[in-house]
Design goal:
Layout lengths: L8 H6 L25 H23 L9 H5 L13 E4 L3 E4 L2 E2 H7 L11 H10 L5 H13 L5 H8 L7 H12 L4 H8 L7 H27 L13 H9 L4 H13 L8 H11 L4 H12 L7 H16 L5 H13 L17 H13 L4 H20 L10 H10 L8 H22 L12 H12 L1
Antiparallel strand pairs: 1-2, 2-3
Length: 472
């Protein structure tokens, strides 16, 4: 990964770069020398012109370079394997897993600022990394935390819009409604209606994106308290960081739970651009829909059982195992239950991935958290046993390219341990987290002037005729 270079000589003189010996050679540590270095918007104003020129050069020098061949299987199979999106904030490797601006999850845990040494990365630090390509200092992260808190005020009409829905409405339905209500104050929409040059599109997009990221935990916590806690809302705590404040507003103040929420938000933030929620946001935003409209569309995709709703399904399935077999279920009993699930035409939730071909690093870091904080939890032990039992069975079927667990296989058990037991709500947590990656990319979409997305579609008749001609 090539990180951004400053276009300002003064900025270069202000910044002393040192190199962590054990990390990717492209990682940079920054020493702060001025107040402008603490401001994320100022950093982007310096970085964007260089990246705009970089993209122009790629287009002019390499625009006709072929990236692969499209097959009929790809067209029929949901475009899997097609390289067709520019997504700067993260890259998913089938074997290594996700890298955020070139950094793996273990590397992020090592270099991104935390509340205390050895703690989990602060989500704000990942937001800075995704937007700038640079590892922030603790001072920069603290400044960003303060800014997000200042943007977190939610108008009353947003709560009124949510309250118009039945309390029994799915949490994701209420969450999407809240996001659409927030759209009323879109800075991008106002600027576009007044007339704004294309070169400045990124600035109101930035304002909307940071406002949205800041407001989402407040809206999400309101929904949780409305549905499950008789509407008793807990106000934000101005002394807490993004992840900890979200946990606090939900009603969970155990220091270990605060750490879990920081980890959860960070690892769920982005997973390159081809997944349903990220791609939906990118597609909708390519029509110059503002970040609120684009993210609301992304949430509707995230709510599907083949995407974000899976983390709800995993815990429900695990509890069904316990209900039928007991907490001390043997591996033989697990095998029988897994075969029962598969033979009924269902999948084992939390296993397999459209791109990954090894155990999801997001699963691994959650397992490490569990080994540290809840090693004797019965459900964690069950998840560990499933890790040993499920993959061989899926391999035996011979139809699964990836029999290994993904992020959803573990997250629900951790949340359940600390008291957040309402599985129907879990996808909302996922949605709050995913805003960081989606909004970071939307800012760069506008900064780079990426165009309206419009792939070509074909009919089955066209496909049949084309393939016959090729075969002949």
């Amino acid at each position: 990964m090539v990180f951004f270079r400053s276009v300002s000589l003064l900025s270069k003189l202000r910044t002393r770069i040192t190199q962590p010996s054990s990390l990717n050679n492209s990682v940079r540590w920054l020493q702060i020398q001025s107040s402008s270095d603490l401001d994320l918007h100022s950093q982007l104003k310096e970085l964007i012109p260089e990246q705009q020129e970089r993209l122009k050069k790629i287009k002019s020098d390499y625009g006709k370079v072929q990236l692969g061949n499209i097959t009929a299987d790809m067209v029929i199979g949901g475009m899997r394997g097609m390289t067709g999106l520019l997504w700067e904030t993260s890259l998913l490797d089938p074997d290594e897993g996700i890298r955020f601006r070139g950094l793996s999850i273990p590397e992020c845990q090592k270099v991104l600022p935390a509340v205390q040494p050895g703690g989990e990365p602060l989500p704000e630090s990942l937001l800075w990394l995704l937007l700038t390509g640079k590892v922030p200092s603790k001072e920069q992260v603290d400044a960003l935390s303060k800014e997000l808190r200042s943007r977190a005020t939610v108008p009353d009409y947003v709560y009124n819009a949510i309250d118009a829905l039945p309390v029994a409405a799915h949490p994701m339905t209420q969450f999407t409604t809240g996001v659409m209500a927030l759209q009323v104050k879109s800075e991008f929409q106002k600027a576009y209606e007044k007339g704004i040059s294309k070169a400045k599109y990124w600035e109101p997009t930035y304002e909307d994106s940071l406002n949205l990221i800041a407001q989402l935990p407040v809206v999400a916590a309101y929904i949780y308290r409305r549905i499950y806690k008789e509407g008793k809302v807990i106000p934000a705590d101005a002394s807490l960081d993004y992840g900890a404040n979200f946990s606090h507003m939900l009603g969970f103040d155990d220091p270990k739970m605060l750490e879990l929420m920081r980890l959860y938000v960070t690892i769920h933030s982005d997973h390159e651009g081809g997944n349903v929620s990220a791609h939906t946001a990118h597609l909708v935003a390519s029509a110059l829909s503002d970040p609120y409209l684009s993210f609301a569309a992304a949430l509707n995709g995230l709510a599907g059982p083949l995407h974000g709703l899976a983390n709800q399904e995993v815990l429900l399935w695990i509890k069904s195992v316990v209900s039928e077999c007991g907490e001390n279920v043997s591996k033989d009993q697990l095998k029988d239950y897994i075969w029962k699930t598969l033979n009924s035409g269902k999948v084992v939730p939390g296993y397999g991935h459209g791109v990954l071909r090894k155990t999801d690093p997001r699963y691994t870091c959650q397992r490490e958290f569990a080994l540290k904080h809840l090693p004797e939890d019965p459900l964690f032990k069950l998840v560990s046993n499933l890790y040993e039992v499920v993959p061989p069975i899926l391999l035996e079927l011979g139809k699964v390219k990836n029999p290994w667990p993904n992020v959803d296989a573990h997250s629900g058990v951790l949340l359940n341990y600390f008291g957040l037991t309402e599985a129907r709500y879990y996808t909302v947590l996922f949605g709050v987290s995913r805003s960081i990656g989606i909004c970071s990319q939307l800012i760069w979409d506008r900064a780079l002037g990426l165009p309206l997305e419009r792939p070509k579609s074909v009919t089955m008749e066209w496909l049949e005729n084309h393939c016959k001609k090729v075969a002949a």
